[in-house]
Design a protein that fits this description.
This protein is an alpha/beta fold. The chain has one domain: 3-Layer(aba) Sandwich (Glutaredoxin). The protein is built from five helices and seven strands. The strands form two sheets. The protein has a five-stranded mixed β-sheet, with helices on one face. The chain is globular and about 40 Å long. The protein starts with a helix and ends with a helix. This is Redoxin domain protein. It comes from Pelobacter propionicus (strain DSM 2379 / NBRC 103807 / OttBd1). Keywords: Signal. GO terms for molecular function: antioxidant activity; oxidoreductase activity.
């Protein structure tokens, strides 16, 4: 009887917690854990998944055209693809934009994005715990998340590049 009374008394608080912290939030990947599986269709119509990138170092970049910090991070990601693409770095940009309209095309052209892009479904965003942008994950050739970078600044850029260089030499 005591448990029922306790649940009734705290039901509103429990409901708020369930709404604010859904079960998916508990499955968010951490560095050192396997990446959640994902599937997406790129803007060129190619289906990609985590398995597509097995055997490669993958930089997974969650961004949006309306995200001001993304305008700073995306050029760095473009540069990383130029510098390390021939050594095996793969990059996939996952857009949190609602559509691929003119604003999206303009963003891609203006920033000269040189890697595949795909819309990030709500399921994919939830699986990766995306609550703000930009978020970049470095995933090793075995599919393990090696680091998660939230937001972007020069220090994040340097750290990401050092990790990618190290992982590429380990392959």
């Amino acid at each position: 009887m005591g448990l029922v009374r306790l649940l009734r008394r705290h039901a509103p608080a429990l409901l708020v917690l369930l709404i604010l912290f859904p079960a998916a939030a508990h499955t968010v990947p951490l560095a050192g854990q396997p990446s959640p599986p994902f599937k997406a269709i790129t803007t060129t119509g190619q289906e990609v998944s985590l398995d597509t990138y097995r055997g490669h170092v993958l930089l997974l970049d969650f961004f949006a055209t309306w995200c001001i910090p993304c305008r700073v991070s995306v050029p760095h990601v473009v540069e990383m693809k130029l510098k390390y693409g021939r050594q095996g770095l793969q990059v996939l940009g996952l857009s949190a934009d609602d559509d691929g309209g003119e604003a999206f095309r303009s963003f891609v052209n203006e920033l000269r994005i040189n890697y595949p892009l795909a819309p990030a479904s709500q399921a994919v965003q939830s699986a990766f715990g995306i609550r703000s942008l930009p978020v970049m994950l470095v995933i090793d050739s075995r599919g393990v998340v090696r680091e998660i970078y939230r937001n972007f600044n020069d220090e994040v850029g340097r750290s990401m590049e050092l990790l990618i260089r190290r992982l590429l030499t380990e392959q």
